[in-house]
Input
Amino acid sequence: MRILNTVFASTALLVVAGCGGGGGGGSSTPTPTPTPTPTNSAPSITTAATASVLEGATTSWTLAATDADGDTVSFSISGTDSADFTLDGATLSFAATPDYETPLDSDGDNVYALVVTASDGSASDTLALSITVTDASEGRVIDGPVSGAAVFIDLDGDSVQDDDESSGTTDADGYFKIPVATAIDGTAPKLISIGGTDTSTGSEVADLALISDMPSDATKSLAVTPLSTIVSAAETAEAKAKVLTALGITGDVEDVLTKDVWKEAQEGDADAKAIQKVNTQVATVIKTAQAVVKSGSSTAVTAVAVSKAVAKEVAAKTATETSVDLTKSDTVEAVLKETVEEVVTDTTEAAAVVDKVDAVAEAVAEANAVVAAREDPTAAAEVAEAASLQDAITSKADELVQGTITEAEFDTQTTASTVLAEVDTDGDGTVNSSDDDDDGDGVADASDAFPLDAAESVDTDSDGTGNNADTDDDGDGVADASDAFPLDSAESVDTDSDGTGNNADTDDDGDGVADASDAFPLDATESVDTDGDGIGNNTDTDDDGDGVADASDAFPLDSAESVDTDSDGTGNNADTDDDGDGVADASDALPLDATESVDTDGDGTGNNADTDDDGDGVADASDAFPLDATESVDTDGDGIGNNADTDDDGDGVADASDAFPLDSTASTTGQAGIQGYTLPSTVTVLETQE
Output
């Protein structure tokens, strides 16, 4: 009954709880609706799934993602090539500058695969990201280095940058990287540079166009220069080689045209200096041609057209002449005239310009001769002089063609002596011709190796590069940073820092041992190497190399000896009495034991310690012959052991006849019963009478 009542009561309670209200006049409280738990949304990555970068670029990417909940999103990377990247917050970058020719991705195809994960701490999104490294044509534009030049690959040969042609701009040092382009069948692509600023002079070169052939080896860097412009006009490999020869340049065409000539000339390379001199001379011709054409033509002529015309004419001369000297006025005149006639379409205008070319050509030739005579065409002073001459010629050529000055005035105003005399290098108001310190560096011109360069005054090795710029002032092949004597070509090392270079020092390491006697003349902690193993004795644990450690070697500096048993100073190998017991080793049974020399029984224990010297089993104390293993008893004490003695007891009866051979008092008959006695076979019995 108790159980039934309980069940009923529970059922009733459930019913009441389930009613929406009711009787008894009471009211019920509505059960509140639970607040639903918010659902977190995963972030969504918005970064593109593919990207590309030109080799050599330091490109980075900013990863991006949205989060509907406004949560902070963090990024991580994983995947096949993730180790080749760094991630700083949301900034993704290559860990090392990518190189198309040396790919670091796992399969070496220059396509880097990684997985980007964006997380809000609770949920995440992933992106399979593929980054492709593309090949680049790279090089340097050089008049001096030209910054801000527009560079493009002319695929169709129209000298105009088309939308589908790879292009770029040179950096502050004249270097460029642009995507490699696929050549059009039947067309040899050219690399063309237009305009920019010559960083060596700070001058705009808006009308300077330079051209270069594309190298057969795509991995090589290009030098786009006035010389490369001339070479590009020659159509065959043989003709290109003739251009170099005729202009006095040695070397393979492709190697010459891929040489960073400005950098190498500054480093003192003689061949690079020779090339840069030609570059400057050709540039003067091109710039002058640009000036006279621009002044004399009523229709616009592109800079590329003028440069191509000059290149064509110079190249044509090299095809027929073994030497083309741009310091000769007749050579320059011919090039300028033919250039004008080719690009100025109005024949009357062309003729008028040509009529003025004689005087212009003489000024160009003289300017080029000045360049040819200088030591270093990249030195600041020489660059300034060349620029002054170029500026004077081009500006006055414009005036001459325009008719605002006469030829006589042109000649006077463009003569090298006149132009250079008006130069005030240091800007102190005194022209160089009257200034005894042209560059204002405080060093008189008479003592200044670089009187026109305020940054230099000394050239210790006379290599044409001043000590301030030279990384090896004394020209000894050791960089100044590593040279203890950067101004002394005879010395570069001072091991002991005593102020005397090693070449002159007789004790380089200053350890007090002359180099001639020092096995380690450059190591102050070592001077001897007894065993010649290259390890000095101070460090070597076996100085004589005999296999016995010095700590255990009585003669650590003598490989023939290591033990001195008797400590007499003579090693055992040389000592004839190792233990010093007075018995020569040859006669000493125990040559290393001074307490022993004899071992009668050869048991390894010397007689002094052995209790049975002869090893016969009879202790020496009981052995009449302790040194004779065949004897141990001498009954009669005659010095002959019983084994050898024929009369052991010395009774005069031979043992063979002696009934008592060990008893000298008994030997006759009647001794029956005595031990050892044997009755004779015949016995005579005497009867006793009573």
In short: The mean pLDDT is 88. The longest strand covers residues 124-134. Residues 270-296 form the longest helix (27 residues).
